[in-house]
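Job type: complex structure
Entries:
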Amino acid sequence: MTDVVDLLRAALGDAVSTEADALEAARADKSGQRSAGAPLAVITARTVEHVQAVLRSAHEHGIAVVPRGAGTGLTGAAMAGPGELVLSTAAMTRILEIDEADQVAVVEPGIRNADLNRALEPHGLRWAPDPASREISSVGGNIATNAGGLLCAKYGVTREAVLGLDVVLADGTLMRLGHRTVKGVTGLDLTALLIGSEGTLGIIVGATLKLTPIPTGAVATIGATFPTIEDAAAASAAITAARIRPAAMELIDPVALAAILRHLGLPDRAPGTAHLLVQTDGEAAESEARAALAIITALGGTARMTTDQEEGERMLAVRRAMHPAMESLGQVLIEDVAVPRSQLPAMFAAIRTIAERHGILIPTVAHAGDGNLHPNLVYEGDEVPDVIWRAAGELFEAALALGGTLTGEHGIGTLKRRWLVDELGDEQLALQRRIKQAFDPRGILNPEKVF
Amino acid sequence: MTDVVDLLRAALGDAVSTEADALEAARADKSGQRSAGAPLAVITARTVEHVQAVLRSAHEHGIAVVPRGAGTGLTGAAMAGPGELVLSTAAMTRILEIDEADQVAVVEPGIRNADLNRALEPHGLRWAPDPASREISSVGGNIATNAGGLLCAKYGVTREAVLGLDVVLADGTLMRLGHRTVKGVTGLDLTALLIGSEGTLGIIVGATLKLTPIPTGAVATIGATFPTIEDAAAASAAITAARIRPAAMELIDPVALAAILRHLGLPDRAPGTAHLLVQTDGEAAESEARAALAIITALGGTARMTTDQEEGERMLAVRRAMHPAMESLGQVLIEDVAVPRSQLPAMFAAIRTIAERHGILIPTVAHAGDGNLHPNLVYEGDEVPDVIWRAAGELFEAALALGGTLTGEHGIGTLKRRWLVDELGDEQLALQRRIKQAFDPRGILNPEKVF
């Protein structure tokens, strides 16, 4: 296998690295997990041809390839281990085209989501997917995981914002999927199939993105507290049921809120206090916010509403402080279940029961507009203890029992593989494996991930 | 093979028909085409178990099965011929659930699009896909073709309005794909893959649909005429570029307009006159319509705007009269190319050149908001003459050369099979066939369609 590394180095020069630091970095992502050992080499592709060359060699020699973007994934999908090659598209960061008339951008996969959106802003356009990681995550990674974010209840997930993909298959074949038009139904929708496939079907080397106008009009923000998380969740469900469509609607449970307030140096609230953030935008921003405010107050919330942008940002800062606040508690396993919106109160109750049963902390935030919860399972030490895995398993069971899903926006990766069959069933899992085989008959692309 | 029909009749009773009328009806759809001869039998499934029973038998005996809904397709995908079984889901029309809180409906595939939306209206909800055929086409057929319609530039296509599918595979296995939650990325997105697969991968027997609130606020409608279709297309492109998002924006070319005016008994316009219809909705309806009106006038259009609902409906009636007006011209082959929006003027010019070259009429309407054109190639007699096929081929070439696609919303079926490889290329077509095989190893589901 070292021979292949030598061959690649001869062909690709300094794009191939076997430096200890590079190998070590590729063992991990942002999941807190780490692979069993160092991979063979990290190839930082600068062109599509680099990607093709690596896959042709790997295919010929039967060597596993782990595709990698910015390495910000939360499920271990980009972690590489012994005997594997890492193929990074992080250096392919060019914007090839911004077409204002057709509202389309053509980009390389390595560009950061926020960098792309900063480049689009002068054109009055944006790419709607806005994962919380947007400053550090790449467009290619957003596509590989079908990333969601704060705005997607109103503005859609990644799948709805991608028109076409350039993909290199396991054998090095470059394939252009999809189209540049808004609509198109020519053959099977392989673009949609690739989105969220977590590097198991092909390597994304280019994307034709559907852009949308940056919303105009006011932005209104509401920060509200409730005596319990169930009350707060009931209010968010009532807002959805009232046909109000907030741009963002975030729930913060009491455990998370206490940690965030401590982290920000703000005074404590009464035990059990939960937080609800609502932001509306567009022409109806104010009237929608006033309607939401009335619901919040009627359901026992204490709320403040503003149309001042800076004050709105300060309110959102509470939610944005979640990740740093968690770091002060210890290590966290970040989970990502989703349930039908009406089941949010039941899911929060289930999380509390599970935390109490195991004597652990599970601070939880949720994108309430789409029923997606992020329970953070807190633990000490370098390894995820068994009790945390057991609690995670019970979380998944509870979500599935409520008509939900294992993962709303992070993906399966290595972390949730053991539960995949619980949701899909044996027959669908077998079908998914046959499809994987149609793309990658030798099984070299991101093996032991997802399936 | 008659044995299989006998076996099915023994098992399913009067769900199995070999009546001449039923067989004859299943030879055609709304494409104007007809299969080479009568199929073996038509099975009108009333339950999921019926569908499974038919597929188990067909799979065992290697008999082709043509899935069929309302039979309103425009590409021949539901046409059945000698040696084939027709499996119709048209009688499975129940709404199993409407959940207002989660904005979800669970339905059987045979329900008509418009019937579903009438049932949703009292709940203040709708299922957004609105093909022009909505009164006669089924939800299952809308899903099998990823149907578009007049509103989809603003409100999305079918793929964006389906959360989960119950599908019976070729061997009779029932599989539940997707989920009930708004978000979910567990494994490969087989729901998206099934949408638009035209009956080649499985038979849709149930769907979990994402509903959206019926827009509130005013509706504003503009009817405008321009001296040429290129002027009208330039105005529609300018409206899009100005970040206005009409609910519907329809172009009618001079040949189509003349036929429609004649059909409606309205006075002729000057030769070359083209029509542009714009409808805006929601809170910003009036301000958006006024901005569109200013653009239309500045670009040489003569326009009338109304916020009166009845007058707006009368304006839209011009567009709705397209299909009946075509019937007065002769037979038509309805095409469905899509191009990037900025290329609409170029595509209209190409259509005129092709029509003149062959001495034929190609009245054309377009969903301007998403660049989707429906050229209607007019001919006489029962068979599509060679000159029409040649002209259609040139249309496809022109669309592809402009960065477009063969089909925006009707699908490939049998009509566009010969051009599929021109868009996909040999390698992608081979990959699509391997995926088909992963679902249907014996190739019994809708053979000779699409691929």
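Summary: Residues 2-88 of chain B form a domain with the Uridine Diphospho-n-acetylenolpyruvylglucosamine Reductase; domain 2 fold (CATH 3.30.43.10). Residues 130 and 303 of chain B are 26 Å apart (CA to CA).
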